[in-house]
Amino acid sequence: MKYYFFLITFLIFTNCNVAFNHSRAGWEYLNKNNYDAAIAEFDAAFSHDSLPGTYLGYIKACLGKGNAETAYEYLARGLKKHPDDEFLLVTAGHIYEMQRNFCEALLFYRRANKTAFGKVSNSMYKRIEMHIKSMEDSIRVNNITCSE
Prior knowledge:
Blueprint lengths: L1 H30 L3 H12 L5 H13 L3 H14 L4 H13 L3 H12 L3 H4 L1 H20 L7
Helix pairs in contact: 1-2, 1-3, 2-3, 3-4, 5-6, 6-8
C-alpha cells in the first residue's frame, strides 16, 4: 500500500514539474516575442497540467499573434479551471476594457482585487484599486449604466 502511495505521489510531482518546465520555457519564448514556440511549449505544459500561468502565457502569445478568438477561448477555460486567479481576472478585465465594455471590465477588476493581491503584492493591489476608481469615475462622467 505504501508503494502505491509513493508511486502516485511521485507521478503527480513529476507531472507538475514537467508542466512547470514547459510553461517556464513558454514564457521565455514569449518574452522574446517568439509566439509560435511559446504556444508549442504552453501546449506541452497543458498535456501535463493546467497551471494558471500557462493559461496566461498562452493567452498573451495568442494575442501577440493576433489570434484574439483563441485567446478568449483559453481565457474562458482558464477562468473556469481557476476562477479566483487574480492575473487571469485582471487579463479578462483588460480585454473587456480594450473592447470598451467598461462595466464588464470593472466586474473582473473588482473580483481580482478581492483575491490574493492584497496578500501577495500591496503595490499591485493599490494599482488595481486606483484603476477601479478611475474606471468608476469614467463610467459616472460618461453616464454609462452598469447593472451590478
